[in-house]
Structure formats: structure tokens, C-alpha cells
Amino acid sequence: MRQAHGVGAVRAGDAAAGAGLPGDPLMLRAAHGLARTCALLLDGTYGSRVVLLVGSGGNGGDALHAGAALALRGARVDALLLTDRPHAGGLAALRAAGGRAGSDAAVLDDADLVIDGIVGIGGRGGLREDAARLVAHAEATAATLVAVDVPSGVDAGTGEVPGAAVHADVTVTFGALKPGLLVDPGAGCAGVVELVDLGPAFDAALGAPEVEALEAADVAALLPAPTAESDKYRRGVVGVAAGSDAYTGAAVLAVGGALRAGAGMVRYSGPDLPTALVRRRWPEAVVGEGRVQAHVVGPGLGTDDAGLVRLRRVLGDGLPAVVDADGLTLLAGEPPLGGPLVLTPHAGEAARLLGADRADVEARRLEHAQRAARAYDAVVLLKGSTTVVAAPDGRVRVNATGTPWLATAGSGDVLSGVVGALLGGGLDPFDAASAGAWLHGAAGRLASGDEDGTGLAGGPVVAEDLLDALPRVRRDLA
Ligand SMILES: NC(=O)C1=CN([C@@H]2O[C@H](COP(=O)(O)OP(=O)(O)OC[C@H]3O[C@@H](n4cnc5c(N)ncnc54)[C@H](O)[C@@H]3O)[C@@H](O)[C@H]2O)[C@@H](O)CC1
Ligand SMILES: [K+]
């Protein structure tokens, strides 16, 4: 499990580990970790050219001390000072090591590596104009860009990017991951994230994480595995109420998602046309209502009265349910209904649920997912470039699998089926939603050939491809 801690927790960790002691031992520890990563990236420091972008706070101090360490190993180090009050100890160390400080941006032109020490966890608002200009200059060169602690311009606590920001190749972060490194749009600015250990006193002061991200081993441990005693009922029966005469594909894909994610059985109920198509594609699905352990309701349901009647009927029995797509539109005006719910909105649907603006939801994903979870007393899985899963009790997970290739028609229908299968298999709604997002993202990567999830590699996927990839993802986990 990867865990991120908020700015308050990190400040507490710093204090417990001796921040501000004479000689700045904690900062030196951080700076040495930073310098080590930079030396590896440079593939030999001797004769290499390093430029530091230095702001007024501790973040600039880290950059200056790391610059000093690199200068002692033979690098030519120039600091560009964005402040007239740079960290005094750091500047003295850089000068003593033979580094220089100035303000001529031309040094960027032949830099091999640029270190962004403009702001860290103390940053507020986007980059200011002078800093933004220097960053744009640095990004236009061939130099590797390393952010100190967080890319400057990214809000460390939330991942918001209110203005211009650094787009780093690597971020070296200290003591703990920050939520802004896991949640988009900030996460998209961080590049590869390296964590420098600040020791047990720091760790002990952190408390509970604000944001978690499941890893493969966590998902493997959560997933219900069939045993010799299992039968289809114990593995979980999922009821799928999806699709209409206008939207038939949603029914086929949601049923497929549930089956391929390991449901013991799927019961499909819907109008004649989608029913006929479900029967043809999935002869193993049972048509009609009956006993189930969880529901999937909403994809392709339609938003007319018939859809509302189906939604109410399904949610009326108080069983756990995944509500997606048209189900969310219908739910937006409804009093809280039924049992434990997982809502799976994209940003537009979340905006409708909250009466908010779509662009605001995209910009502040963490806040809006948490608000929706509280407002609907449900687990909310906010889809997007990083999927955020929020529980009404305040817990948050983000999903680190996935690929931009997943933004394709029908992909969400498959996801709702996958989460439904996990709910039916007995996972609680928070685990079902976060493990479901993980499996769905991993299936997307596998199907597209986009191994690192950047979208730069791989190619298009269609929703059917996800269905084929799901059992392979499950096998690889085992
Ligand atoms: N306290 C410590 O001992 C340690 C601190 N560390 C480093 O120190 C950082 C925190 O230091 P600080 O609390 O000084 O905060 P920062 O260095 O993040 O920045 C705060 C300074 O930047 C200015 N500022 C805020 N927003 C700005 C913006 N948008 N544009 C330009 N200037 C802006 C503020 O006026 C303030 O002077 C961490 O992120 C980490 O890099 C690490 O060295 C670990 C140890
Ligand atoms: K920074």
C-alpha cells in the first residue's frame, strides 16, 4: 500500500525529527537523498552542468545543499535565485563547495539537470510570473528536471494546480508521499516519484495517512478466491439492471464485467432487446429477477420514468449496489435510497450530483469526491485521469493503474460490472470500489500495451478488450 500524508502531518514529522536544529541535520539528510538521485540521473557528476531554481523557503535550502553536494563531486553548479532572502546555510554551503549564485537565466541553456527548489509544502497559489518564465525556459531545454519534494505550483495537500507549475521528470520527496503527488492534476506534474527516508522519529509522528493507493499485493489479498467449498452462490450473485432499447451495449458490457471479474452468477433484468443481446453474448447469465448479493444499476438505463422505476425497485431491497451513469442522473434528485452504495461518476456526473461546476470537479478532485461521499452517504468512485475513491467516513484511495486509452465508450459499463462482482463477493464498498478500479485500470494497460500508464506507449482499446484482459490480470495477481 502506498500512503500519502498531508502537509500538517509532514510538519509534525519534521518537528519530531528535529527540523530547525542548529546545522539543519534534517535538511542535510533530505538534501543528500536528493543529491544521490541527481547523481544517478546524471550518470556521473564530474563535469556535468546543474542549475538550481531557488525560492525563499526550506525547499530552496534543500536545493542549495544538494547543489553543494554535487559541486563537491565535480559538477558545475549555478543557482538562479528567485528571492533576495535565500536559505542562508544552503547558500553558504553551495559557495563553499565552489558553486555560484546569480540571476542570468542563460545558464539554463546548456544545463544537463535542473533542480526545482522554488517552493515545497509551503507553496501557495500557482507559480509567480518570474518563476513561471524560468520554468518554461528550463522545460524547453534538454535538461532533466528534478522537483524537490513537490513540483512547484502543485498544492502538496490536494493535487490542485491553480496556475503555472513545474512538469518534472522526477520528484524527490521527503519523509512521506504527499496527496498532491498521487492526485491529478498534480500527479501528472510529478513524473517518477522517489521517496527519501527521514527516519523513525519522523515516521512515528505522521499518524494515519490521508490518501492510500492499493498495490498489486493489496489487491491480491482483498480479492475473494474460490475454495473447494465454493459454489456459484457463495462466490456471489450479482443482479445487473442496465441497458434499454436505446442503449443495449451497456447491458452486455456490465454483465461481462461482472462475469469476467469472477462473479459466481449474474442475473440480468431489462427490456426485451438488451435481454436478447445479453442472452446471445453471455449464455451463462440468468435472465430475470431473483436472489442476489449485490446489484449493478444504471448503465444505459435511460433517465425517463421507466428508468426511475427500475432504479427504485433495485435499490429498495437494501442490498449493496453500484450506481452508475443514468442511475446517477436519476439519483441526483432522490432522497437517499437503499443499502450501502458505490457511486461511480465521471466529473460531469459528479458535478450534477453536487450541483457543482464540472471544471471545478476536475480541478479539485479530492475535495469533490469527499463532498459527494458525505452528501450521499456512499462510497464515491470519481473516474478520471486519476480515479479517486472516497468513503463517507473520510478515507480516500486513489488508483494508480489505468491508462488514458481507457477513456473510451463502454469502459465505465465494464467497471460497474467489475465493482458489482466484488461487492457480491463480499468486499465492503470501499474495498470493492478501490480494488475494482485497480483491476479495471490494469486490464486497460494490459489490453492497450501501455505498460507504464502514460498513454505514450500502447494503442487504442475498446471495452470488449477489457473483458478479455480481466481474467489475465486476475491470473497474474495470483
Ligand atoms: N523543516 C525542515 O527541516 C525540512 C524542510 N524541508 C523542505 O522545506 C520545505 C518546506 O519549507 P518552507 O516551510 O520554508 O516552505 P517552502 O520552501 O515550500 O516555501 C515557502 C516560501 O515560499 C514562499 N511562497 C509561497 N508560495 C509561493 C509561490 N507561489 N511563489 C513563490 N513563493 C512562494 C513563501 O512566502 C515562503 O517564504 C519542504 O517542502 C522541504 O522541501 C526538507 O528539507 C525536510 C526538512
Ligand atoms: K519544488
Automatic annotation (TrEMBL):
(6S)-NADPHX binds at residues 58-62, 120-126, 149, 250, 300, 346, 413. It holds the Pfam family Carb_kinase. Binds 1 potassium ion per subunit. Residues 215-477 form the YjeF C-terminal domain. One of its GO terms (biological process) is nicotinamide nucleotide metabolic process. Signal peptide: none annotated. GO terms for molecular function: ADP-dependent NAD(P)H-hydrate dehydratase activity; ATP binding; metal ion binding; NAD(P)HX epimerase activity. Its EC number is 4.2.1.136, 5.1.99.6. Keywords: ATP-binding, Isomerase, Lyase, Metal-binding, Multifunctional enzyme, NAD, NADP, Nucleotide-binding, Potassium. This is Bifunctional NAD(P)H-hydrate repair enzyme. SUPFAM superfamilies: Ribokinase-like, YjeF N-terminal domain-like. In the N-terminal section; belongs to the NnrE/AIBP family. Belongs to the NnrE/AIBP family. Residues 10-206 form the YjeF N-terminal domain. AMP binds at K383, G384, S385, T386, T387, G412. Homotetramer. InterPro entries: Carbohydrate_kinase_pred_CS (IPR017953), CARKD (IPR000631), Nnr (IPR030677), Ribokinase-like (IPR029056), YjeF_N_dom (IPR004443), YjeF_N_dom_sf (IPR036652).
